[in-house]
Specification:
Order of helices and strands: HHHHHHHHHH
Radius of gyration: 18 Å
Number of helices: 10
Distance between the termini: 54 Å
Shape: globular
Number of strands: 0
Oligomer: single chain
């Protein structure tokens, strides 16, 4: 029985690593009030990964990861510049970056026979089939983010550190888990930090919801990425409903204001 279930170890560990990688960054996103940055940078990273599949039928190993990282860094730099240059319109402008990235992906996919399937996979990846190389990459990213963030995540409040780390993290996470799961992992647990829960609790809640979604997918034969994203959305909703009508508390950690 244990041998029959060994194959699920990689996707389960990948989700746990993604929680450690993305939840501290999501807390910073909410603290900065730039929610669209998740979708914008993730979509640009996805466009970079998609471009490799379209340009090279037999792409060299790691090419998608490299181009995804480059695209995410460029997208993160653009988002940072827009937020600094026009702070009053930053959410609207970042939203346009997302639409531009999504539209470029759709146009590119139209020129590849398998483009539509690749685009769908980048939006809602089949998490059940995440392999050990992607899991190892997520784990390495998680170790790096936790080390850079410090115990309470406040080091990530500096723009010069946050934007490149955020871009690189999404370039790793989106090809493995899909944009929907990545966005849900960034936002849903962070809503608990806005209620005053410590960052470690938010990570634990995210891990529980992610593994529950994976279990639901396996038991009911549902699409795995969508199942995980749905459970995470429920987690985020649970953070808001009990506090309806009451003012939010300042988070004790993980939600420090952005620095320059």
């Amino acid at each position: 029985m244990a041998a029959d279930l060994a194959w699920i170890a990689a996707p389960a560990l990948a989700l746990l690593a993604a929680c450690l990688l993305l939840v501290p960054l999501g807390a910073q996103v909410l603290a900065r009030g730039v929610v669209f940055i998740d979708l914008a940078v993730a979509q640009v990273a996805a466009a970079g990964a998609l471009a490799v599949g379209i340009a090279w039928e037999q792409a060299p190993p790691g090419a998608a990861a490299v181009l995804s990282a480059v695209a995410a860094l460029l997208g993160g730099g653009l988002v940072w510049w827009l937020a600094r240059r026009w702070p009053a319109q930053r959410e609207a402008l970042i939203g346009l970056v997302y639409v531009a990235g999504a539209s470029a992906s759709v146009v590119g996919a139209a020129f590849d026979p398998h483009g539509r399937e690749q685009l769908t996979a980048l939006l809602a990846a089949d998490v059940l089939w995440v392999g050990w190389p992607a899991t190892a990459l997520l784990a390495a990213g998680a170790i790096a983010v936790l080390a850079l963030a410090g115990r309470d995540g406040r080091r990530l409040g500096r723009d010069a550190l946050f934007y490149p780390v955020f871009a690189l993290a999404l370039s790793v996470a989106v090809p493995a888990l899909g944009l929907y799961v990545v966005f849900a992992l960034l936002i849903a647990p962070a809503l608990w930090t806005r209620r005053g829960r410590p960052l470690r609790d938010a990570i634990a809640l995210a891990a529980g919801a992610s593994l529950a979604g994976l279990g639901v997918s396996w038991a009911l034969d549902w699409p795995s990425g969508a199942s995980v994203a749905l459970l995470l959305c429920g987690l985020g909703l649970a953070a808001v409903i009990p506090s309806a009508g009451t003012p939010p508390r300042s988070p004790p950690n993980g939600g420090s204001p952005p620095g320059r």
